[in-house]
Amino acid sequence: MTTAVVVDAVRTASGKGKPGGALSGTHPVDLLAHTLRALVERNGLDPALVEDVIAGCVTQGGDQSLNIARNAVLAAGFPEGVPATTVDRQCGSSQQAAHFAAQGVIAGAYDIVIAAGVESMSRVPMGLASHGGNPFGGGLLAGRYPEGLIPQGYSAELISARWNLDRETLDRFSARSHRLAAQAAAEGAFDREIVPITVAGGEHRVDETVRPSTSEEGLAGLKPAFVDEGMAARFPEIDWRITPGNSSPLTDGASAALIMSEERANALGLTPRARFHAFAVTGDDPLLMLMGVVPATRKVLERAGLGIDDIDAFEVNEAFAPVPLAWAAEVGADPEKVNRRGGAIAIGHPLGASGGRLLSTLLGVLEATGGRYGLQTMCEGGGMANAMIIERL
User: Fold this and answer.
1) Residues 7-58: pLDDT tens digits?
2) pTM, rounded to two decimals
3) What gap in Å lies between CA 255 and CA 360, rounded to an integer?
4) Dist CA 340 CA 257 (whole Å)
5) Per-residue pLDDT averaged across 324-348, rounded?
6) Within the chain, where are the H helices?
7) DSSP string of 2-23?
8) Residues assigned a catalytic role
9) Which architecture does CATH list for 4-125+249-268?
């Protein structure tokens, strides 16, 4: 069987996903194009050798419509013969792109492929693609869920209540995210994964959403973000613990990973950083939609023949603080191995790009610590999750 390896993984530094954010003046096509070009240039790869580019993007409307992956490939100056496709598995879109890319290599469909992702939340607001339409159908879905599905913020509230995660615990974890991310940045731990991008006023190379001064005391003063009387009546266990401070911020960013067969990497004189070891994707309760990470983790560990203690580093997307906390409690993961350089609460969550961001950070953590196996998992809208295990080489 062909071994799929990741030769390199890069990302932009995060920008606040609102007007005036560091990357808000950069069109998402150009944002992704810059990242793709930087990836091949720093690895000395002729882009004509790339057989496909698979890019994640969640809100595929407005500036991100009409197959943004292909538009970015052309904007990057790649040969016109390089194809591209855009995928949407909600927050896990670029992780799914990496799954598809690596699985294509393993199957023999590709020798060299790029998995990427992009989201400009300052220019393309969440939900834009569904404006004027009804994404939930003509009544069959409502017949299955007569009380209706709920937005992710309320799912986070339900998880907090049902796993007994109080406000203090959520805020402590969130402050940790900022502290670890700020420390990693100060130590240069992100330097290898971040590719600078030219913006008005110079180069952007530092995550704009990380706040080194964040404290538990400061977070405790923030008001809940999702208070709703109707939801309170439907779910009386909810007591409103989710705030902007223990949630991931709206963010702009892009990511890209160079994936190929180990044989082709060796022939090109490239040194693989890790091999893909196992993959899993699963569906789960769409009300507790953020907890699909638990069955996905169990499934990928079983496929890999590994136990939770065999994993040296975890990247669990911090869409909301209760997700990694409840996940760790359910699967028995060592909390010290989780998001060692902070997570999305600090670094940001540019939806379609986040899976690639996790991969680039996970590679760096494994290399810095000498760890062998790394596991990353992403919760996704609609009650889904991806999980994969990589092995450092």
Assistant:
1) 999 999 999 999 999 999 999 999 999 999 999 999 999 999 999 999 999 9
2) 0.97
3) 8
4) 21
5) 98
6) 28-42, 68-75, 93-107, 140-144, 152-162, 167-186, 216-220, 229-234, 262-267, 293-304, 322-331, 344-347, 354-369
7) PPEEEEEEEEPPPEESSTTSTT
8) 91, 349, 379
9) 3-Layer(aba) Sandwich (3.40)
